Protein backbone atom coordinates (compact mmCIF):
# COMPACT_ATOMS: atom_id res chain seq x y z
CA UNK A 1 0.00 0.00 0.00
CA UNK A 2 1.23 3.51 -0.88
CA UNK A 3 2.14 6.03 1.80
CA UNK A 4 0.36 9.24 0.84
CA UNK A 5 2.26 12.42 1.57
CA UNK A 6 0.97 16.01 1.57
CA UNK A 7 1.61 16.36 -2.16
CA UNK A 8 1.38 12.62 -2.99
CA UNK A 9 -2.37 12.73 -2.20
CA UNK A 10 -2.85 15.27 -4.99
CA UNK A 11 -1.10 13.02 -7.52
CA UNK A 12 -3.18 10.06 -6.34
CA UNK A 13 -6.44 12.03 -6.55
CA UNK A 14 -5.54 13.15 -10.09
CA UNK A 15 -4.67 9.58 -11.13
CA UNK A 16 -8.19 8.50 -10.16
CA UNK A 17 -9.59 10.72 -12.90
CA UNK A 18 -7.85 8.68 -15.60
CA UNK A 19 -10.99 6.72 -16.53
CA UNK A 20 -13.30 9.73 -16.75
CA UNK A 21 -14.98 9.28 -20.17
CA UNK A 22 -15.54 12.99 -20.80
CA UNK A 23 -12.31 14.85 -21.67
CA UNK A 24 -13.84 18.20 -20.65
CA UNK A 25 -15.04 16.89 -17.28
CA UNK A 26 -11.59 15.36 -16.72
CA UNK A 27 -9.94 18.71 -17.51
CA UNK A 28 -12.23 20.57 -15.10
CA UNK A 29 -11.94 17.98 -12.30
CA UNK A 30 -8.13 17.85 -12.70
CA UNK A 31 -7.71 21.60 -12.41
CA UNK A 32 -10.23 21.91 -9.57
CA UNK A 33 -8.53 19.14 -7.59
CA UNK A 34 -5.09 20.70 -8.12
CA UNK A 35 -6.24 24.17 -7.06
CA UNK A 36 -8.20 22.97 -4.02
CA UNK A 37 -5.30 20.89 -2.74
CA UNK A 38 -2.85 23.71 -3.37
CA UNK A 39 -5.15 26.16 -1.56
CA UNK A 40 -5.27 23.94 1.53
CA UNK A 41 -1.47 23.61 1.53
CA UNK A 42 -0.91 27.32 0.89
CA UNK A 43 -2.96 28.48 3.90
CA UNK A 44 -2.26 25.35 6.03
CA UNK A 45 -6.00 24.98 6.57
CA UNK A 46 -6.76 23.62 10.07
CA UNK A 47 -9.43 20.94 10.74
CA UNK A 48 -11.53 23.59 12.58
CA UNK A 49 -11.37 25.97 9.62
CA UNK A 50 -12.26 23.17 7.21
CA UNK A 51 -15.25 22.26 9.42
CA UNK A 52 -16.37 25.92 9.51
CA UNK A 53 -16.24 25.93 5.70
CA UNK A 54 -18.38 22.78 5.52
CA UNK A 55 -20.89 24.31 7.96
CA UNK A 56 -21.02 27.48 5.84
CA UNK A 57 -21.79 25.47 2.68
CA UNK A 58 -24.37 23.36 4.54
CA UNK A 59 -26.13 26.53 5.69
CA UNK A 60 -26.07 27.89 2.14
CA UNK A 61 -27.77 24.65 1.05
CA UNK A 62 -30.44 24.89 3.75
CA UNK A 63 -31.41 28.47 2.92
CA UNK A 64 -31.60 27.76 -0.85
CA UNK A 65 -35.03 27.07 -2.34
CA UNK A 66 -36.90 27.95 -5.54
CA UNK A 67 -36.88 31.68 -4.61
CA UNK A 68 -33.51 32.04 -2.89
CA UNK A 69 -30.25 30.80 -4.44
CA UNK A 70 -27.44 31.28 -1.94
CA UNK A 71 -24.86 29.43 -4.05
CA UNK A 72 -25.31 31.82 -6.98
CA UNK A 73 -25.03 34.71 -4.53
CA UNK A 74 -21.82 33.17 -3.18
CA UNK A 75 -20.46 32.84 -6.72
CA UNK A 76 -21.53 36.45 -7.45
CA UNK A 77 -19.95 37.96 -4.34
CA UNK A 78 -16.69 36.05 -4.88
CA UNK A 79 -16.47 37.48 -8.41
CA UNK A 80 -16.83 34.03 -10.00
CA UNK A 81 -20.04 34.76 -11.93
CA UNK A 82 -18.56 37.96 -13.37
CA UNK A 83 -15.39 36.10 -14.42
CA UNK A 84 -17.42 33.35 -16.13
CA UNK A 85 -19.47 36.05 -17.88
CA UNK A 86 -16.39 37.94 -19.10
CA UNK A 87 -14.80 34.73 -20.42
CA UNK A 88 -18.04 33.67 -22.16
CA UNK A 89 -18.11 37.00 -23.98
CA UNK A 90 -14.40 37.47 -24.68
CA UNK A 91 -14.40 35.79 -28.12
CA UNK A 92 -17.72 36.98 -29.43
CA UNK A 93 -18.12 40.62 -28.55
CA UNK A 94 -15.58 42.05 -30.97
CA UNK A 95 -15.39 45.71 -31.99
CA UNK A 96 -17.77 47.97 -30.17
CA UNK A 97 -20.50 45.45 -29.25
CA UNK A 98 -22.07 46.38 -25.91
CA UNK A 99 -20.47 44.60 -22.96
CA UNK A 100 -22.51 42.10 -20.98
CA UNK A 101 -23.32 42.27 -17.27
CA UNK A 102 -24.76 39.81 -14.76
CA UNK A 103 -28.32 38.51 -15.18
CA UNK A 104 -28.86 38.36 -11.39
CA UNK A 105 -31.72 36.60 -9.62
CA UNK A 106 -34.54 39.06 -10.38
CA UNK A 107 -35.23 38.40 -14.06
CA UNK A 108 -38.75 36.99 -14.63
CA UNK A 109 -40.09 35.37 -17.74
CA UNK A 110 -43.48 36.57 -18.94
CA UNK A 111 -43.16 40.26 -18.06
CA UNK A 112 -45.90 42.38 -19.67
CA UNK A 113 -45.28 43.58 -23.23
CA UNK A 114 -45.64 47.34 -23.69
CA UNK A 115 -45.71 49.73 -26.62
CA UNK A 116 -42.88 52.23 -26.82
CA UNK A 117 -43.36 55.22 -24.48
CA UNK A 118 -45.24 53.14 -21.90
CA UNK A 119 -44.64 53.57 -18.17
CA UNK A 120 -43.36 50.40 -16.46
CA UNK A 121 -43.48 51.80 -12.93
CA UNK A 122 -47.01 50.49 -12.24
CA UNK A 123 -47.52 53.22 -9.66
CA UNK A 124 -44.13 52.87 -7.91
CA UNK A 125 -43.06 56.15 -6.27
CA UNK A 126 -39.88 57.93 -7.29
CA UNK A 127 -38.20 60.42 -9.60
CA UNK A 128 -39.64 59.94 -13.11
CA UNK A 129 -37.13 58.97 -15.78
CA UNK A 130 -37.31 58.34 -19.51
CA UNK A 131 -35.06 55.62 -20.90
CA UNK A 132 -34.49 55.58 -24.64
CA UNK A 133 -32.03 54.49 -27.28
CA UNK A 134 -31.50 52.30 -30.28
CA UNK A 135 -30.48 48.72 -30.92
CA UNK A 136 -27.85 48.59 -33.67
CA UNK A 137 -25.57 46.07 -35.31
CA UNK A 138 -21.80 46.50 -35.39
CA UNK A 139 -22.02 48.39 -38.69
CA UNK A 140 -24.37 50.92 -37.09
CA UNK A 141 -27.51 49.64 -38.86
CA UNK A 142 -30.73 49.62 -36.81
CA UNK A 143 -32.15 46.26 -35.70
CA UNK A 144 -35.94 46.43 -35.99
CA UNK A 145 -38.24 44.27 -33.88
CA UNK A 146 -35.52 43.35 -31.36
CA UNK A 147 -37.08 42.20 -28.07
CA UNK A 148 -35.99 44.24 -25.06
CA UNK A 149 -36.69 42.87 -21.61
CA UNK A 150 -35.97 45.40 -18.90
CA UNK A 151 -36.21 45.12 -15.10
CA UNK A 152 -35.02 47.26 -12.22
CA UNK A 153 -35.25 47.99 -8.50
CA UNK A 154 -37.52 50.72 -7.14
CA UNK A 155 -36.49 54.08 -5.70
CA UNK A 156 -36.04 52.33 -2.35
CA UNK A 157 -33.93 49.55 -3.78
CA UNK A 158 -36.42 46.69 -4.03
CA UNK A 159 -37.45 44.49 -6.96
CA UNK A 160 -41.13 43.53 -7.31
CA UNK A 161 -40.18 40.02 -6.13
CA UNK A 162 -39.11 41.55 -2.79
CA UNK A 163 -42.33 43.53 -2.29
CA UNK A 164 -45.28 42.45 -0.10
CA UNK A 165 -47.16 41.22 -3.23
CA UNK A 166 -44.44 39.50 -5.26
CA UNK A 167 -46.96 38.13 -7.76
CA UNK A 168 -47.57 41.67 -9.09
CA UNK A 169 -45.09 42.56 -11.83
CA UNK A 170 -43.69 46.08 -11.41
CA UNK A 171 -40.78 47.97 -12.86
CA UNK A 172 -40.26 45.46 -15.62
CA UNK A 173 -41.55 44.98 -19.12
CA UNK A 174 -40.87 43.88 -22.66
CA UNK A 175 -40.58 46.24 -25.64
CA UNK A 176 -39.98 45.84 -29.36
CA UNK A 177 -37.73 48.20 -31.28
CA UNK A 178 -39.33 50.12 -34.14
CA UNK A 179 -38.17 50.22 -37.81
CA UNK A 180 -35.33 52.51 -36.79
CA UNK A 181 -34.21 50.22 -33.94
CA UNK A 182 -35.58 52.70 -31.38
CA UNK A 183 -37.12 52.01 -27.97
CA UNK A 184 -38.36 54.34 -25.26
CA UNK A 185 -40.04 53.83 -21.91
CA UNK A 186 -40.87 55.69 -18.72
CA UNK A 187 -40.01 54.54 -15.25
CA UNK A 188 -38.66 55.81 -11.93
CA UNK A 189 -35.02 56.23 -11.04
CA UNK A 190 -33.74 53.04 -9.33
CA UNK A 191 -31.49 53.26 -6.31
CA UNK A 192 -28.53 51.19 -5.20
CA UNK A 193 -29.55 48.19 -3.09
CA UNK A 194 -28.02 45.46 -0.96
CA UNK A 195 -27.92 41.87 -2.24
CA UNK A 196 -29.73 39.52 0.20
CA UNK A 197 -27.50 39.72 3.28
CA UNK A 198 -29.54 37.87 5.91
CA UNK A 199 -27.92 34.47 5.24
CA UNK A 200 -24.46 32.92 5.27
CA UNK A 201 -23.23 35.05 2.34
CA UNK A 202 -24.22 38.22 4.23
CA UNK A 203 -22.32 36.91 7.26
CA UNK A 204 -19.33 36.22 5.03
CA UNK A 205 -19.39 39.77 3.64
CA UNK A 206 -19.49 41.25 7.14
CA UNK A 207 -16.66 38.98 8.33
CA UNK A 208 -14.60 40.15 5.34
CA UNK A 209 -15.33 43.83 6.04
CA UNK A 210 -17.30 44.18 2.79
CA UNK A 211 -20.60 45.97 2.11
CA UNK A 212 -23.44 44.16 0.24
CA UNK A 213 -24.47 47.00 -2.14
CA UNK A 214 -24.89 47.06 -5.90
CA UNK A 215 -24.78 50.48 -7.62
CA UNK A 216 -28.10 51.71 -9.08
CA UNK A 217 -28.74 50.04 -12.42
CA UNK A 218 -31.36 48.98 -14.97
CA UNK A 219 -31.18 45.47 -16.44
CA UNK A 220 -31.66 44.64 -20.12
CA UNK A 221 -31.91 41.42 -22.10
CA UNK A 222 -31.99 42.10 -25.83
CA UNK A 223 -32.71 39.42 -28.42
CA UNK A 224 -33.03 39.51 -32.20
CA UNK A 225 -32.82 36.77 -34.84
CA UNK A 226 -29.29 36.46 -36.23
CA UNK A 227 -27.66 38.11 -33.16
CA UNK A 228 -26.28 36.87 -29.86
CA UNK A 229 -28.68 37.66 -27.03
CA UNK A 230 -27.21 40.46 -24.93
CA UNK A 231 -27.71 40.38 -21.15
CA UNK A 232 -26.48 43.60 -19.68
CA UNK A 233 -27.30 46.54 -17.41
CA UNK A 234 -26.84 50.30 -17.42
CA UNK A 235 -25.27 51.80 -14.30
CA UNK A 236 -26.13 55.32 -13.20
CA UNK A 237 -23.22 57.73 -13.19
CA UNK A 238 -22.28 59.17 -9.81
CA UNK A 239 -23.41 56.18 -7.74
CA UNK A 240 -21.18 55.74 -4.69
CA UNK A 241 -20.95 51.96 -5.22
CA UNK A 242 -19.81 51.97 -8.87
CA UNK A 243 -16.25 51.06 -7.88
CA UNK A 244 -17.17 48.54 -5.21
CA UNK A 245 -20.16 46.65 -6.68
CA UNK A 246 -20.71 43.70 -4.31
CA UNK A 247 -21.04 41.33 -7.29
CA UNK A 248 -18.45 42.90 -9.66
CA UNK A 249 -21.01 43.54 -12.44
CA UNK A 250 -20.52 47.28 -13.09
CA UNK A 251 -18.30 48.20 -16.06
CA UNK A 252 -17.16 51.62 -17.21
CA UNK A 253 -18.64 51.20 -20.72
CA UNK A 254 -22.09 50.61 -19.16
CA UNK A 255 -22.12 53.71 -16.95
CA UNK A 256 -24.68 56.21 -18.23
CA UNK A 257 -25.15 59.87 -17.54
CA UNK A 258 -28.64 60.77 -16.41
CA UNK A 259 -29.71 64.05 -17.97
CA UNK A 260 -31.46 66.05 -15.20
CA UNK A 261 -35.09 66.98 -15.72
CA UNK A 262 -35.82 70.40 -17.15
CA UNK A 263 -39.25 71.96 -16.89
CA UNK A 264 -41.87 69.38 -17.78
CA UNK A 265 -39.29 66.92 -19.17
CA UNK A 266 -38.28 64.03 -16.92
CA UNK A 267 -34.66 63.03 -16.25
CA UNK A 268 -33.44 61.00 -19.19
CA UNK A 269 -31.06 58.21 -20.08
CA UNK A 270 -30.17 57.58 -23.70
CA UNK A 271 -28.05 54.61 -24.73
CA UNK A 272 -27.44 52.66 -27.94
CA UNK A 273 -27.02 48.91 -27.56
CA UNK A 274 -24.82 47.22 -30.17
CA UNK A 275 -25.46 43.52 -30.78
CA UNK A 276 -22.95 41.01 -31.99
CA UNK A 277 -23.83 38.90 -35.08
CA UNK A 278 -24.69 35.34 -33.96
CA UNK A 279 -21.67 33.26 -33.05
CA UNK A 280 -23.53 30.01 -32.28
C1 LIG B 1 -28.94 42.04 -9.64
O1 LIG B 1 -28.40 42.94 -10.21
O2 LIG B 1 -30.15 42.00 -9.73
C2 LIG B 1 -28.13 41.06 -8.82
C3 LIG B 1 -27.05 40.44 -9.39
C4 LIG B 1 -26.33 39.53 -8.62
C5 LIG B 1 -26.70 39.27 -7.30
C6 LIG B 1 -27.80 39.90 -6.75
C7 LIG B 1 -28.52 40.82 -7.52
FE1 LIG C 1 -30.15 44.23 -10.25
Essential attributes:
280 residues, alpha/beta, Protocatechuate 3,4-Dioxygenase, subunit A, 2 domains, 25% helix, globular, binds benzoic acid, binds fe (iii) ion
Protein topology:
Blueprint: H1 8-15, H2 23-43, H3 47-63, H4 70-77, H5 80-88, E1 128-136, E2 147-152, E3 172-176, E4 182-188, E5 193-194, H6 200-207, E6 213-214, E7 217-223, E8 230-236, E9 255-256, E10 267-270, E11 273-274
Parallel strand pairs: 1-10, 1-11, 8-9
Antiparallel strand pairs: 1-4, 2-3, 2-7, 5-6, 7-8
Bound molecules: benzoic acid and fe (iii) ion.
Explained architecture:
By secondary structure, this protein is of the alpha/beta class. It has 2 domains: 8-66, no CATH class; 76-274, Aromatic compound dioxygenase (Protocatechuate 3,4-Dioxygenase, subunit A, Sandwich). It has 6 helices and 11 strands. The chain has helices at residues 8-15, 23-43, 47-63, 70-77, 80-88, 200-207, and strands at residues 128-136, 147-152, 172-176, 182-188, 193-194, 213-214, 217-223, 230-236, 255-256, 267-270, 273-274. The strands form 3 sheets. The chain has a 5-stranded mixed beta sheet, with no helix packed on it. A hairpin with a 6-residue loop joins β7 (217-223) and β8 (230-236). The chain binds benzoic acid and fe (iii) ion. Benzoic acid (BEZ) is lined by residues 73, 76, 102, 104-106, 195, 214, 247.
Amino acid sequence: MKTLTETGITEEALARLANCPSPRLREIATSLTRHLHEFVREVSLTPEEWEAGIEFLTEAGHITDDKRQEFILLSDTLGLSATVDIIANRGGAGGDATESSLLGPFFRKGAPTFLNDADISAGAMGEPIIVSGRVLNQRGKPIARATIDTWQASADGKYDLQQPHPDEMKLRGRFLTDDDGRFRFRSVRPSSYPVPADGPVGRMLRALGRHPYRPAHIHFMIAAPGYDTLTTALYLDGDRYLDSDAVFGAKQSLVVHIEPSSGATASAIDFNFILNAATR
